[in-house]
């Protein structure tokens, strides 16, 4: 198994909608909260602000948290075996930034403001649907456990 990878992500809402990005890798498509890996020498906040700029062209984001943590550990039968630690922050963005979302990331295949009520129909990685449906600003930090989605 490779070293655990730290992935930071932002829970960004606009009213009752949540910003998700669609990734496509190895012939599979799935949805994620916007964010990405922390690079050597980079703080979590710096990494998340960089990733939000690269993946969504969001440049003026106010971050709070982290608000949650989860892990994705591939079963022993998967190769290469991955272990990702997901740190989730709350992000606030001005409404006018949503109209100009573009991406510099080759794996990003689109962005969507998803009604929270429709989250169950999305292949979300990690599968944190219930947390996203229930979370409200001011909730305490939560450990979501080990969640793996194929």
- CATH C-level class is Alpha Beta
Largest sheet: 8 strands, mixed
Give the helix proportion (percent range): 10-25%
Order of helices and strands: EEEEHEEEHE
Low-confidence stretches: none
The CATH architecture classification is Alpha-Beta Complex
The number of helices is: 2
Predict the CATH topology.
Nucleoside Triphosphate Pyrophosphohydrolase
The CATH superfamily is: Nucleoside Triphosphate Pyrophosphohydrolase
The count of strands amounts to 8
Structural class: mainly beta
* Backbone CA Rg: 15 Å
Fraction of residues in β-strands: 35-45%
The span between the termini is: 17 Å
Give an overview of the whole structure.
The protein has a single domain, classed as Nucleoside Triphosphate Pyrophosphohydrolase (Alpha-Beta Complex), CATH 3.90.79. Helix content is 13%, strand content 43%. The chain contains two helices and eight strands; from the N terminus they run ββββαβββαβ. The chain has helices at 44-56, 129-134; strands spanning 5-14, 17-25, 28-32, 35-37, 61-73, 83-93, 108-115, 142-146. A hairpin with a 2-residue loop joins β2 (17-25) and β3 (28-32). The protein is globular. The two termini are 17 Å apart. The model has no long low-confidence stretch (mean pLDDT 89).
Give a quick precis of the structure.
The protein is mainly beta. It has helices at 44-56, 129-134; strands at 5-14, 17-25, 28-32, 35-37, 61-73, 83-93, 108-115, 142-146. The chain has one domain: Nucleoside Triphosphate Pyrophosphohydrolase (Alpha-Beta Complex), CATH 3.90.79.10.
């Amino acid at each position: 198994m490779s070293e655990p990878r730290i992935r930071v992500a932002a829970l960004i809402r606009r009213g009752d909608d949540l910003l998700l990005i669609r990734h496509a890798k190895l012939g599979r498509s799935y949805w994620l909260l916007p964010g990405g890996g922390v690079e050597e020498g980079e703080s979590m906040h710096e990494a998340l602000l960089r990733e939000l700029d690269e993946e969504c062209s969001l440049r003026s984001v106010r971050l709070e948290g982290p608000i949650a943590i989860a892990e994705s550990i591939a079963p022993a039968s998967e190769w290469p075996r991955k272990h990702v630690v997901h740190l989730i922050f709350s992000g606030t963005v001005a409404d006018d930034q949503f109209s100009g979302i573009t991406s510099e990331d080759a794996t990003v295949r689109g962005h969507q403001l998803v009604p929270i009520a429709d989250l169950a129909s999305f292949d979300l990685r990690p599968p944190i649907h219930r947390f996203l449906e229930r979370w409200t600003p001011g909730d305490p930090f939560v450990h979501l456990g080990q969640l793996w989605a194929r």
